[in-house]
Amino acid sequence: EASEVTCQTTLKSFSTEYTDDNKQGSYECRNDTSVASVACGKKRKERLLKLKILVEGINDAVGENRCPCKGTLTRILDTIDHDETEYHDDEVDSGLAVALCHLLALVLKKDSRKHLDKKLEMICTSLELIHRCSNIQCEESFENIGNELVDLLTDVIDVCLSVSKELSKEQRQTSGKTTGKAIRIFGYFAAVKNAHTHLLENTKLLDGIVKVILFSRESDARVDAVWTISNLAFTNAGRDAILAHPDLLRVLFNFKDKKPQFRTEVAAVLLNLTVSSSNQERLIDCRPFLPTLVRLMSTGSDEARSRAAGAFRNLSANGLLVPKLIAFADGIILDTLINGISSHMDDKKTCCRATATLKNFVRESNAEAMANHTGLLAIFTAVITESHHPEAATSAAIALKKITWEINHPSKAHKTMLNFLVMTNKMIDEDDYNVLLSELFLIQASKEENQIVLVHRPGVFDSMASLTFSNNVQARSNGVKILRLLATKEENHSRLVQNKAFLLAANNIIRRKGAENQESQAQLLQVLSVLSTREENKELLANNKMLFEAMSDYERSDQKYYEHAFLS
Question: 213, 225 in Cβ contact below 8 A?
Fold first, then answer.
């Protein structure tokens, strides 16, 4: 079972998406000789010149150990506040991020704890806007200033959170926004894989993230803090660092934030953490972990639910953990997965991941208990016939086959399973499901211990015989194979020749036209030959006018069929 990770790179509170467009600052109009191209090129030159002037102005101010006035910072914001990824790439290339980083260092040196004003927020906002660039440019920016900027931003977070109680309402709002911009830049860097090693070496980074989740009054900042963790959990080193931190998991498990996006990002972290098999047992043994997944699966958004289901799927792929998962809290995980599928059948990710988890839960050691579970067999059938998700349907079919293979007579669950197969055969008349049902019955018929029970238990044989009337060739073929296996038991012979369902099935198969039916017809006539070896059965078969006429027609239809019919 392939594990899955989710690197959340969609920003949440503004229109631009942080995606890797691989354009590296190029423009489609650059190689165009049209009038529009010339205008675009002229506009870009003007913009690059403006960026150059801004960078020089910032560098001059830093060199003179002073901070530019608010007017200058406002012009910077006006220039870079847009939704064009290519323009943000230009801003990185121009050195604006480097200049602002040096300016931030200067501002923090000036007693900002006592004089926290709008300038700090404007600088951090500018840096955050610039880093909405492509992943390639973000990686380049990190190589240039990443370590220095991360240290500075952790100091910014400390400043904002430590003085917030002493500030006016307006200053608290400024402090909260500044924190949010700082933490979002962490998220951008965390989405760059090559930056992970350096980020994780910074011991203050995870501490700062924890502080934001615990103490920030800005809901968006808390969401972005968790989003940053989910991006860090994209690699093994990141997962190890997160699990090693003394407080990080605790604040995630005890989340009280009611914002759906917060829960969605928590689910992303837990999904990513479960990818590493080396971490899985440790996570399960952490008391709040499984209850948190259950809670997210039951009450989270669609995305949170699907990610929680993905985490369960990753865990269930580890066979050693399956007994713990099934037994947890009297089977609450099993019930939660079934309810999740039933209530959200149209949600492809949830349905596929939850069904795959249930499939992984079915083992040789627990097949009987799983078959006896209220609703489990039914949900597998519902997924196959109602979900319209091929991946989920495949998982459900595999699970049913595993259960059918493991449960045989005289198991206590055998009667339950047979009754289920009979019931679904009566309720569902779909060709695809008929094929699966024929495969399930064929599995049962292949076991010698079941062959007498399948013929003698009321309703079961009728269901199997009805498969020979299916419109699907494979279902009919499997139906004949079942009859052939059941006829190997001499104890079944007299019951078969007197069974109306058997005689109708034989008549139907023999009368079918077409080359695709020839193999089944030959096998069916061999069954009749075997049954005719007993004297008392010969008269019963020969006096069945319908069957006798069908065999005669079959023999006359083609000379090559004569031998089969004659032997019978």
Answer: yes
Question: Length of the chain, please?
Answer: 568
In angstroms, the CA 415 to CA 177 distance is: 64
Task: Compute the radius of gyration of the chain from its Cα atoms.
Answer: 34
The backbone torsions φ and ψ at residue 463, rounded to the nearest 5 degrees and listed phi first, read: -65, -45
Reading the block at residue 405, the tokens are 């293979």
For helices 96-109 and 35-63, angle between their N-to-C axes, nearest 10 degrees: 30
**CB-based burial label for 490 (10 Å; 0-12, 13-18, 19+):** exposed
Inter-axis angle of helices 219-232 and 203-215, to 10 degrees?
150
Q: To the nearest whole number, what is the mean pLDDT of the chain?
A: 88
With 50 as the cut, is the pLDDT of residue 14 above it?
no
> Tokens in use for 247?
């407080």
Q: Which two tokens stand for residue 335?
A: 């019930």
Distance of CA 12 to the CA centre of its chain: 21
Q: In the chain, helix, strand, coil percent, each to 5? A: 75, 0, 25
Q: What is the mean pLDDT of residues 379-391?
A: 95
The amino acid occupying position 36 is A
Q: Can you give the pLDDT at residue 488?
A: 95
Question: Of 98, 86, 96, 85, which is closest to residue 52 (Cα–Cα)?
Answer: 96
What are the two backbone dihedrals, phi and then psi, of residue 2, each rounded to the nearest 5 degrees?
Answer: -70, 135
Cβ pair 311, 298 in contact under 8 A: no
Question: Could you tell me if 529 and 510 are in contact, meaning their C-beta atoms sit under 8 angstroms apart?
Answer: no
CA–CA gap between residue 78 and residue 71 (Å, rounded): 10
What are the pLDDT digits (tens) for 164-210? 566 677 878 888 999 999 999 999 999 998 899 899 998 899 999 99
pLDDT of res. 472: 95
Q: What is the pLDDT of residues 409-435, one digit of tens each?
A: 999 999 999 999 999 999 988 888 999
pTM of this prediction exceeds 0.70: yes
Q: Is the distance from CB of 505 to CB of 469 less than 8 angstroms?
A: yes
**Lookup result for tokens 């040096």:** 102
Residues 6 or more apart whose Cβ sits within 8 Å of residue 328: 290
Is 60 in a helix, a strand, or coil?
helix
According to the model, what pLDDT value does residue 520 have? Answer: 94
What totals of helices (H) and strands (E) does the chain contain, helices first?
A: 34, 0
Would you say residue 18 has pLDDT above 80?
no
8 A C-beta contact, residue 23 and residue 339 = no
pLDDT of residue 380: 97
Share of the chain above pLDDT 70, in %: 88
Alpha-carbon distance of 133 to 387, in angstroms, equals 40
Helices 376-386 and 390-406 pack at an angle, to 10 degrees, of 140
